């Protein structure tokens, strides 16, 4: 496989989400229960951000914040890239790299249907790492 495949062929179907008003303990519990590293953050049924393990570790635990008192919306990343399931993998992979994001929610119309992560990209397109190295050298 290469970068000329559609996201729907490589994405993880279904999305594990957390409400923006949830506290960090609820988010961390969901991450552990699902054995994943990131959650899509939802507000009024719209994806508004992403929260990953690193956000919890760096923005809550390392700062000595109280996890039950901290809401997900206070630590989530809002630099959200959302992609359509018919977009090409290479286009989305390059956008992820350029914007330094590790996961992208995938939609079909207005409906959230999946997520694509850096791991999904590397499994589907092992040559992506080489493409990125070449890009860095040429810049």
Structure notes:
- With 139 residues, the chain is of the alpha/beta class.
- The longest helix has 11 residues, at 24-34.
- The chain has helices at residues 24-34, 53-61, 89-99, 118-124, 128-138; strands spanning 12-13, 17-19, 38-43, 46-52, 83-84, 103-108, 111-117.
- The chain has a single domain, classed as CBS-domain (Roll), CATH 3.10.580.
- It has a 4-stranded mixed β-sheet.
Number of extended strands: 7
Distance between the termini: 26 Å
CATH T-level topology: CBS-domain
Give the overall pLDDT as a whole number: 89
| Number of self-contained structural domains | 1
Shape call: globular
Instruction: For the largest sheet, list the strands in their spatial order.
Output: 1-7-6-5
In percent, how helical is the residue content? 25-40%
Radius of gyration: 16 Å
Outline the secondary-structure elements.
Elements: E1 12-13, E2 17-19, H1 24-34, E3 38-43, E4 46-52, H2 53-61, E5 83-84, H3 89-99, E6 103-108, E7 111-117, H4 118-124, H5 128-138
Parallel strand pairs: 2-3, 5-6
Antiparallel strand pairs: 1-7, 3-4, 6-7
Provide keyphrases for this structure:
alpha/beta; CBS-domain; 24% strand; 139 residues; three-stranded mixed beta sheet; 5 helices
Provide a concise account of the structure shown.
The protein has 139 residues and is of the alpha/beta class. It has 5 helices and 7 strands, in the order E-E-H-E-E-H-E-H-E-E-H-H. The chain has a single domain (7-138), classed as CBS-domain, CATH 3.10.580.
């Amino acid at each position: 496989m290469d970068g000329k495949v559609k996201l729907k062929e490589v994405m993880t179907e279904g999305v594990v989400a957390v409400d923006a008003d949830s506290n960090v303990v609820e988010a961390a519990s969901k991450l552990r229960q699902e054995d994943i590293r990131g959650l899509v953050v939802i507000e009024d049924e719209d994806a508004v951000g992403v929260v990953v393990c690193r956000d919890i570790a760096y923005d809550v635990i390392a700062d000595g914040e109280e996890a039950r008192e901290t809401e997900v919306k206070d630590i989530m990343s809002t630099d959200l890239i959302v992609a359509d399931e018919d977009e090409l993998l290479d286009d989305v992979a390059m956008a992820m790299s350029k914007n330094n994001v590790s996961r992208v929610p995938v939609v079909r119309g207005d409906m959230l249907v999946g997520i694509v992560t850096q791991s999904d990209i590397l499994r589907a397109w092992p040559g992506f790492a080489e493409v990125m190295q070449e890009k860095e050298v040429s810049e």
